[in-house]
Specification:
With 200 residues, the protein is α/β, with parallel strands linked by helices. 21% of the residues lie in helices and 26% in strands. Helix 2 crosses helix 5 (137-146).
């Protein structure tokens, strides 16, 4: 996977991060992870005890691929993927890894270029002919659902989008309702006087 941040356009990523931060204000928990665009942090530090950043380039705390994060299973409250899917071929692997590290009720936020937007066409000039375009929300939604994540919609960021997903808390014991559906009594046939008598 190529670096998620284009070093020749740092201003755009920082401007995008400024627009994204208010959208992430409701994220809270103990541990948060940002993968990609490590020189443009977006997660609110006042809402988390610890924030880790991973990338293949940039000022990340550690080098890591989005499909193989050095994070224990079910330990992350919020995971932000910043443009890691723009040039990633293993969409299912990245989302499966996100589902692995997220704990129950953990939130996934994916930021990516909108396919066929001016920014995408500039970065992928032959993408229309070859099909090598960034992952769009429709493919991302299918990948989330296939890996047990609940799709929660998207927000527009000029030439990009931000998509939200949720890992529901699993329940080992299936819940049974305390109430039962009452059965309706079968209607009884009511005899009509004289109905069986022959007419004279």
């Amino acid at each position: 996977m190529a670096s998620s941040v284009d070093a020749s356009e740092p201003g755009r990523w920082h401007a995008e991060a400024r627009k994204l931060r208010p959208m992430l204000a409701d994220l809270r928990g103990d541990v948060a992870v940002q993968v990609g665009a490590s020189d443009a942090p977006c997660l609110p530090p006042e809402h988390f005890r610890t924030i880790f950043t991973f990338d293949e380039l940039g000022d990340a705390q550690a080098r890591a691929h989005a499909a193989a994060l050095p994070v224990p299973t079910a330990t992350v409250d919020a995971l932000l993927l910043m443009h890691v899917l723009d040039r990633e071929d293993d969409l299912d692997g990245v989302i499966a890894e996100a589902a692995r590290v997220l704990r129950g009720e953990g939130r996934l936020v994916v930021v990516g270029l909108r396919p066929f937007s001016p920014a995408a066409l500039a970065r992928f000039p032959h993408g229309v002919r070859t099909g090598a375009m960034p992952v769009g929300p429709w493919r991302l939604r299918a990948a989330m659902r296939a890996n047990g994540l609940q799709w929660q919609g998207t927000r527009r960021l000029r030439w990009a989008y931000a998509a939200w997903g949720l890992r529901r808390q699993s329940c080992a014991t299936p819940l049974r309702p305390a109430w039962k559906v009452a059965r309706r009594p079968r209607p009884r046939a009511v005899g009509v006087p004289g109905a069986g008598r022959a007419r004279g």
